Structures are given as structure tokens and as C-alpha cells.
Amino acid sequence: MSARNPLRRLLRLRQIREDQARAALAGASRVSGAAAELLEVRTEEYESRPGLPEMLSPAELRGLMLQGVRSHELMSAAAEVYDRALGQTEVARRGWSAASSELRSAEKLDQRRRREADRTAQAAAERALDELVLTLRNLRRWI
Q: Is 45 strand, coil or helix?
């Protein structure tokens, strides 16, 4: 990075932010995938329970009620974790999108600046060549 080009620094910083946002999005996607698997496992456990016998003792009835409450708590917790993970993934996706957009705008700005610098250098070179030709003509007249 040259000291003359502050856009290079800006571009590098935006590249770093975009990389960080992409890593955060990947992490959030992994977490939401794990949460989805957990929810699926809990749902399968719940659905694979055996049917109820026709006659239950009060103790068995109380045990089944407690198991049902616990299953409901586990399902609710898994659903909450999944919802939270999806929310974090969406936040990470928006962050990455913003960082990516900023990076693209900085790249476009840098490209425009380079094209303008190239045009300016080309014009300066042409003016210098014209002045050199005029100087040579004037020298030939005096000789």
C-alpha cells in the first residue's frame, strides 16, 4: 500500500470486514444446521414413542404426564434454539451483504480512480511529447 493511495487502505479494510462477515455467516449457518438436526431428533423421539396401554395405574399416569411435560419442554427448547439460530443466521447474512456491498463500491471507486489517473498520465505524456516536438522545431530554426 502506498501512502499516496488511501483508497487501497479502505479497500483492504473492507476486504477484511467482508471476510469476517462471511466467516460469521458460515458459523451461523453451521449453528442453525445443528439446531435443525436437534429439532428433528427431538421430533423423531417424540413420534417414536409407543402407544398407551388400555389400563394405567395412577403412578403410570403421573409418570406419563411428567414425561409428556418434559418432552414438550425439550421440543420447545429445541424450537427456540432453532429460531434463535435462524435469526442469527439472518443477521449474519445481512451483515455479510452489507460488507460485500461496501467492498464492491470501494473496488469500483478504486477502478474509477485508476482509470482517471491513467487518463491524466496519458494526457500529461501527450503534452510532454508535444512540448518536446515544439522544442525540437524551435531548436532547428535557430540552427
A: helix
